[in-house]
């Protein structure tokens, strides 16, 4: 080992099971990433349900950890055998029911499934609280409505993160932010909403089952609470080589929405974050619960149980990416070679020079359905008027505005109907890779300052590692908000852009045309099959 290599005083592991990748990051006492590993995986459509094999859960975890462990040994000259704290997160929601012998009763039904519409509508009406189709309670109730045989045998229902945590520690627990994707949470008690639990028990009293809802759901824990220790068997599940020792403490498992909040320091009231990639969602931490429920808004919580409103849009940059591939094909046909980074940077920067009316161009970026605007299907479209000005600048700004339009409609429900105040949004994701362009246009569209920080690109697994660090590193009674603000993010550079008057006016004119254009989208769906 080289003499100048300084061994970390603290080793904290964060692992996130995302939709396309299992990512593991190891951080030190200064919250810097010191090693990482990953494994790519894909969901499969089996018997009408999107699912992942549980065998892939463990093989993927082991491959990601092995890569991380090998990199650590190369960097520090010693094997990775002892980790101080560990945290697991995963794609939220979904359905993993187990029987008394710990057998999975159905293949894992992921958040992507849209097979629970009847159950979601029934529960939304029963609770007067929006229950999205992807929530665990919607999957459970749909199984009841379908009279599925396995329902009577359920003894434990959890999410992907909760399942992994259970197998590694023996503890059937879950973080409150993740629990909020299973069943509505009462932020006053940081637990499942007891009055809604009673409503559900009454509604299902005649169902052939021996379980109660609270009897099968995992225990709810808040950030900073101990959630068990890595067992000997659990350590072998992560590292079959046997090098990893048991005894690491684990923080409550969380969902990817919660880790996104933590990774962007957006857990305090009146703050929020926007995750912007192929899809987009904003998470706004509220000062108090909303006065009414909206099918366009998901109510979840921060990892400490504060109410948070989620605006989720299925479509964001997919259409932009498709046009970029077309441009790259043209460039390649001319015998030229341009990197993806340069191509996207050039296209996004061109949008800065667009006419104020975008040349009267219009587009709809719906590749799939969009619940906020009531579309079950999508038909991506690009439109121009006979007198439109078709230029690269106008073309690109039109597509960026189109990507932002549905998010704007969802956010307006919060800011206009509920008078929610947002002091700042912190952005992360591929949309912000080109410096300032997407950031400024989002700020103009939402009329909120938008900030970007360097660490936001490290994403969910880093946020999960921060939650694991908080468990072992916080001062007595130190809140998560204070811990992140004072210890983690105080030294990081943040770039904030405020809304511009001309940009706001330009986007508002676009929105007027966009709302009218949705009627054309409906016609396209009806006639183009």
UniProtKB/TrEMBL annotation:
Domain Carbohydrate kinase FGGY N-terminal span(s) in chain numbering: 12-237
GO biological process, one term: carbohydrate metabolic process
Domain Carbohydrate kinase FGGY C-terminal: start-end pairs: 273-470
InterPro entries per UniProt: ATPase_NBD (IPR043129), FGGY_C (IPR018485), FGGY_Carb_Kinase (IPR050406), FGGY_N (IPR018484)
Superkingdom, natural source: Bacteria
GO MF term (any one): kinase activity
Record keyword Transport present: no
Keywords: Kinase, Transferase
A Pfam family recorded for this sequence: FGGY_N
Similarity section: Belongs to the FGGY kinase family.
Protein name: Sugar (Pentulose or hexulose) kinase
Originating organism: Alkalibacterium pelagium
């Amino acid at each position: 080992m080289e003499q100048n290599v300084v061994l970390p005083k603290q080793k904290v592991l964060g692992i996130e099971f995302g939709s396309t990748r299992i990512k593991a990051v190891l951080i030190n006492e200064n919250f810097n990433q010191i090693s990482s590993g990953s494994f790519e995986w894909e969901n499969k459509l089996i018997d009408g349900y999107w699912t992942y094999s549980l065998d892939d859960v463990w093989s993927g975890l082991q491959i990601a950890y092995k890569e991380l462990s090998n990199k650590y040994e190369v960097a520090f000259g010693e094997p990775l055998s002892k980790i101080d704290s560990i945290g697991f997160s995963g794609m939220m929601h979904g359905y993993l029911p187990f029987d008394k012998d710990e057998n999975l009763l159905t293949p894992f039904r992921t958040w992507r499934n849209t097979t629970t519409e009847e159950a979601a509508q029934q529960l939304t009406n029963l609770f007067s609280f929006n229950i999205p189709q992807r929530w665990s309670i919607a999957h459970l109730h749909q199984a009841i409505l379908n009279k599925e045989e396995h329902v009577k045998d359920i003894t434990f229902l959890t999410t992907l993160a909760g399942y992994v945590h259970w197998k590694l520690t023996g503890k059937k627990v879950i973080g409150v932010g993740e629990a909020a994707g299973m069943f509505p949470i009462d932020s006053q008690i940081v637990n499942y909403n007891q009055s809604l639990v009673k409503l559900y028990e009454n509604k299902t009293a005649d169902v052939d089952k021996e379980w109660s809802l609270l009897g099968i759901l995992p225990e709810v824990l808040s950030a900073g609470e101990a959630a068990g220790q890595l067992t000997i068997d659990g350590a072998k599940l992560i590292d079959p080589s046997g090098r990893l020792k048991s005894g690491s403490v684990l923080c409550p498992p969380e969902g990817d929405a919660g880790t996104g909040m933590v990774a962007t320091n957006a857990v305090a009231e009146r703050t929020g974050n926007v995750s912007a990639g192929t899809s987009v969602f904003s998470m706004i931490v509220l000062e108090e619960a909303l006065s009414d429920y909206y099918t366009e808004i998901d109510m979840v919580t921060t990892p400490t149980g504060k109410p948070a409103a989620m605006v989720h849009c299925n479509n964001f940059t997919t259409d932009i990416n498709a046009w970029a591939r077309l441009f790259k094909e043209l460039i390649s046909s001319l015998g030229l070679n341009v990197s993806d980074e340069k191509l996207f940077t050039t296209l996004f920067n061109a949008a800065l020079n667009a006419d104020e009316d975008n040349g009267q161009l219009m587009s709809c970026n719906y590749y799939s359905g969009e619940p906020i605007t009531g579309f079950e299907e999508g038909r991506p479209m690009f439109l121009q008027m006979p007198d439109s000005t078709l230029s690269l600048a106008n073309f690109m700004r039109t597509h960026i505005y189109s990507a932002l339009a549905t998010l704007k409609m969802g956010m307006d429900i919060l800011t206009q109907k509920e008078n929610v105040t947002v002091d700042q949004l912190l952005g992360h994701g591929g949309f912000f890779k080109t410096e300032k362009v997407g950031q400024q246009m989002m700020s103009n569209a939402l009329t909120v300052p938008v900030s970007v920080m360097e660490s936001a690109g490290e994403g969910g697994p880093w946020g999960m590692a921060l939650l694991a660090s908080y468990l072992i590193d916080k001062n007595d009674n130190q809140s998560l908000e204070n811990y992140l603000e004072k210890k983690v993010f105080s030294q990081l550079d943040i770039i904030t852009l405020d809304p511009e008057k001309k940009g706001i006016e330009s986007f508002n004119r676009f929105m007027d045309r966009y709302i009218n254009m949705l009627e054309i989208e409906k016609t396209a769906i009806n006639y183009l099959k």
